[in-house]
Specification:
The protein has one domain. By secondary structure, the chain is of the alpha+beta class. A six-stranded antiparallel sheet has the order 1-2-3-4-6-5, with helices on one face. Strand 1 and strand 2 form a beta hairpin.
Length: 96
């Protein structure tokens, strides 16, 4: 494997996050949101991960955590994230 990276294709309110690592390149749809949730990145569920990506299910968690951390760092430095079975939500902290 090579150095992991993310690229972005922005098409207004939606686009794609492209994850790369060596010869691997995966494309995930994202949508901008409103309110505390500022963006949603859609990912294959655990059950469909290998079938849709060709990558072992055991590698899924590391990949989606990298995507979540890097997307927050690149696109919304003050954001946090939550991982769900079918998506990653980038969240903006609200005033307390």
């Amino acid at each position: 494997m090579g150095a992991k990276y993310l690229k972005y294709i922005n098409n207004g309110k939606e686009g794609h996050v492209i994850y790369g690592d060596g010869d691997i390149e995966l494309k995930f749809l994202y949508e901008l949101a409103i309110g505390r949730c500022i963006a949603i990145i859609y990912i294959p569920t655990v059950d469909s991960w290998h079938n849709k990506t060709g990558i072992a299910t055991g590698e899924r968690q590391d990949i989606i955590e990298f995507i979540a951390k890097q997307a927050a760092k690149d696109q919304a430095p003050n954001a946090t994230y939550e991982l769900y079975d079918d998506c990653i939500s980038l969240l903006q902290e609200t005033d307390q």
